[in-house]
Amino acid sequence: RKKVTINTIRKLYNDNEPITVLTAHDYPSASFVDKAGIDICLVGDSLAMVALGHESTSPVTMEEMLHHCRAVARGAKSPFMVADMPFGSYEGSISEAVNNAIRFIKDGKMEAVKLEGGTEMVETIRAITRIGIPVLGHVGLTPQRQSSLGGYRVQGKTLEKAKKLIEDAKAIQEAGCFGMVLETIPEPVATHITKLLKIPTIGIGAGPGTSGQVLVQLDMLGIFDRFAPRFAKTYANANSVITDAIRTYHKEVKERKFPAKEHCYPMEDGELERFLN
Ligand code: KIV
Ligand code: NA
């Protein structure tokens, strides 16, 4: 498949073709994204929860993100590669944000970064896009700010909150984002924002009116089972497939059924036996 670039993304958007985004956090999950022909591979900081077992996304560090990014970059060659800037890597100062965005390109082998926030992030987004690093915005439910949001709740449900969300989306478009994630917001708000903007919206829990969709791979495969938000459609029950496989292995070893003859390496006919006798 031809390499997906930011121009491909623009073309998909202009052609009104839905843009597919899926997360990956290591080499095998990245190769699945690649093989399936997904447009954008996202190294989301959701990996903090689904791959590292943290309670939220906040603990994951730049170094950890970069380590995962490099593995993902080795596994996915065709998709456009985007990484989440982790909590604390871009809020403190603009120069820190710019330097960390550069690290994702140089050390992480990524092509773009994603960061959470609306109007308050405008200067940061401008500074990063100005040096040639594409930025994917992220508004609505911003998991890095879950403490101040009071948990993982639907955002923009009242008219007043929806207006603020629309303002945020317009502001980060103006700041230079090439697209933005709309997470867990009412469908009519997401559809309205999508119509208003000139850049693609990528929805998660935002309904079918967005320019594209994103899911967390371990959610949609039914592997991560700690909780399941309404939007997390499971396309496979890989959790039970994997658990069954490992249980069977455990059982077969205990019962001396594995390894069988076909898993063993034979020697030249009778050679060792003759030597020993
Ligand atoms: O971290 C992540 O995986 C994300 C997507 C769900 C948009 O931010
Ligand atoms: Na994220």
TrEMBL record:
It catalyses: (6R)-5,10-methylene-5,6,7,8-tetrahydrofolate + 3-methyl-2-oxobutanoate + H2O = 2-dehydropantoate + (6S)-5,6,7,8-tetrahydrofolate. Its EC number is 2.1.2.11. Keywords: Pantothenate biosynthesis, Transferase. It comes from the Eukaryota. GO terms for cellular component: mitochondrion. GO terms for biological process: pantothenate biosynthetic process. Belongs to the PanB family. This is 3-methyl-2-oxobutanoate hydroxymethyltransferase. It comes from Paraglomus occultum. The lineage of its organism: Eukaryota, Fungi, Fungi incertae sedis, Mucoromycota, Glomeromycotina.
